[in-house]
UniProtKB/TrEMBL annotation:
GO terms for biological process: citrulline biosynthetic process; L-arginine biosynthetic process via ornithine. Keywords: Amino-acid biosynthesis, Arginine biosynthesis, Cytoplasm, Transferase. Residues 47-185 form the Aspartate/ornithine carbamoyltransferase carbamoyl-P binding domain. Belongs to the aspartate/ornithine carbamoyltransferase superfamily. OTCase family. It is found in: Cytoplasm. Coiled coil: none annotated. Its EC number is 2.1.3.3. It comes from Deinococcus cavernae. HAMAP family: OTCase. Residues 193-342 form the Aspartate/ornithine carbamoyltransferase Asp/Orn-binding domain. GO terms for cellular component: cytoplasm. This is Ornithine carbamoyltransferase. L-ornithine binds at residues 204, 263, 267-268. It comes from the Bacteria.
């Protein structure tokens, strides 16, 4: 369920539309500067963002347009989140999520406060519902990077302010916004039929890639070892929605990919499985020779951090086809755009 700004009232979750039509690229000269009177209307005002499917294709297009515009420097004259505060809850450590949400709030005129697991203790030190009911009295939004998707859902059900998924065991939707901003920089806005191949563990990133395929019309292929496929319910839902989805254990599916994507084999919390996973994933490492098999104009993405020697090697992230560090930069722009479209209509409460 989603919510109306500040009211605490729930409204029905939106159903994703068909992929939005291609739009002409905007000027890249940087000459345009937004003023308070020219800002786009926030399209997700007051709602939660727990999954990429919490937005329609049209809303995704608006967020992506804003992210591209912010990267071009067209928002430097405005501070649309002035006087607003975002709480950042971290059960899991982070470099990119912590830095980009904090810097993003600052650049938009707002403030971020970081809360560690020791300070919050979702479901251990305090009930998740109590944390939500406290935070909604003080802050204007919450970004949580957690172990369990269920904790995010409980936060959303009990807080009247927007809740943002910064990562969970099931999904990583904010990362996918940055990923697709990077893909659009390379291939334009019309991604219908573009071949995106994810190789490795069928984890939260794989699930979110499937969701983005639903929204954008990309042809998504997930390549994993046997037994490490993505969530079955996520895959079945995508098929019901008519998404172009292939799940396979065949490494040859990498060949000809427009976008090749990988992630760590051993996520935080899975350290006890490290040796088993390394054996299972042998052969699924992205190397320069694998990059030679993707499309001539294809690109390589990795959400980072990279565990070099496992899912990839330094020569791959430094390869001419790599856009890994552009992708990392775009975490800032995509998340700023998301925060604006969720919080841009809120007024300071003090």
């Amino acid at each position: 369920m989603t919510k109306s700004a500040r009211s605490g009232k729930k409204t029905a979750k939106v159903t994703p539309a068909t992929p939005a039509p291609a739009q002409a690229a905007r000027p890249t000269s940087g000459a345009l500067r937004h003023t308070p009177n020219t800002l786009p209307r926030p399209v997700m005002a007051g709602r939660d963002f727990l999954s990429n499917l919490d937005m329609t294709a049209a809303e995704l297009r608006a967020v992506m347009d804003t992210a591209h515009s912010m990267k071009r420097g067209e928002w430097r004259e405005v501070k649309p989140l002035a006087g607003l505060t975002l709480a950042l809850i971290f059960e899991k450590a982070s470099l990119r999520t912590r830095t980009t949400f904090d810097v993003g709030m600052y650049q938009l005129g707002g403030h971020a406060i970081t809360l560690t697991n020791q300070e919050v203790g979702l479901g251990t030190r305090e009930r998740v519902s109590d944390v939500a009911r406290n935070l909604e009295r003080w802050v204007d939004g919450v970004m949580a990077r957690v172990y369990l998707q269920g904790n995010l859902q409980e936060l959303a059900e009990n807080a009247s302010v927007p809740i943002i998924n910064g990562l969970s065991d099931m999904l990583h939707p904010a990362q996918l916004l940055a990923d697709y901003q990077t893909i659009e920089e390379e291939f334009g806005h019309n991604l219908n039929g573009l071949r995106v191949v994810y190789i490795g563990d069928g984890n939260n990133l794989a699930n979110s890639h499937i969701h983005m395929g639903i929204l954008t019309g990309t042809d998504v292929t997930i390549v994993t070892p046997v037994g490490y496929e993505p969530n079955a319910a996520v895959a079945m839902d995508a098929v019901k929605r008519g998404a172009k989805l292939t799940i396979t254990n065949d490494l040859s599916a990498v060949e000809g990919a427009d976008v090749l994507y990988t992630d760590v084999w051993i996520s935080m919390g899975m350290e006890a499985e490290a040796d088993i996973r390394r054996r299972a994933f042998k052969g699924y490492q992205v190397t320069p020779s694998m990059l030679d098999t993707i499309a001539k104009k294809g690109i390589f993405l990795h959400c980072l951090p990279a565990h070099y020697g496992e899912e990839t090697v330094p020569e791959a992230t430094e390869h001419r086809k790599s856009r890994v560090f552009d992708e990392a930069e775009n975490r800032l722009h995509a998340q700023k755009a998301l925060m604006y479209h969720l919080m841009g209509e809120l007024q300071p409460r003090w």
